[in-house]
Design a protein that fits this description.
Number of domains: 1
Largest sheet: 8 strands, antiparallel, barrel
Helix content: 10-25%
Order of helices and strands: HHEEEEEEEHE
Number of helices: 3
Radius of gyration: 18 Å
Strand content: 25-35%
Structural class: alpha+beta
Distance between the termini: 57 Å
Number of strands: 8
Strand order of the largest sheet: 1-2-3-4-5-6-7-8
Length: 148
């Protein structure tokens, strides 16, 4: 019983020190989300998006709750919102890449996996081909993004 109390005290101290007593998302999200991707965007089809360190929204009503950023391999894993029109509460892998010479489009994304039952399956099920952004998203182009 004493061990349980000590473990609880250590964990509660860690939680308080990690969040400074504020009700905010994990600092690691903000520290690992690339600033180039954060903000309001339109793709080359005119669809509007908003991306924060913890939420990717395809307006008006499709949301992906980001649970993991992988900057080394340029993707993030997200849980599909329960109110999405399809694939509710499943998991997605969204690959991204930076563009050069395609201004005003600075980056693009590929919804590589959108219907995995777990986050680990979404992460390992498929990978986008960034060598050919015009066909590297399962035979389709990456959606090119520009700031609104």
């Amino acid at each position: 019983m004493i061990r349980f109390g000590i473990i609880l005290l250590i964990l509660s101290s860690f939680t308080i020190s990690q969040q400074d007593g504020k009700n905010i998302p994990s600092p690691s999200w903000k520290d690992t989300s690339p600033s180039m991707l954060i903000g309001d965007f339109k793709d080359d089809y005119g669809i509007a998006y908003t991306l924060t360190d913890s939420l990717f929204t395809q307006h008006p009503n499709v949301k992906y709750h980001i649970i993991k950023w992988n900057l080394k391999d340029n993707y993030f894993i997200a849980k599909n919102d329960g109110a999405n029109p399809s694939e509710q509460n499943l998991y997605s892998r969204i690959d991204f890449m930076e563009f050069s010479g395609m201004e005003p489009f600075r980056w693009g994304f590929c919804l590589t996996v959108y219907d995995a039952p777990t986050d680990s399956i979404a992460e390992t099920k498929a990978v986008a081909d960034r060598k050919d952004p015009k066909k590297g998203c399962g035979g389709f182009p990456f959606s090119r993004m520009k700031r609104k």
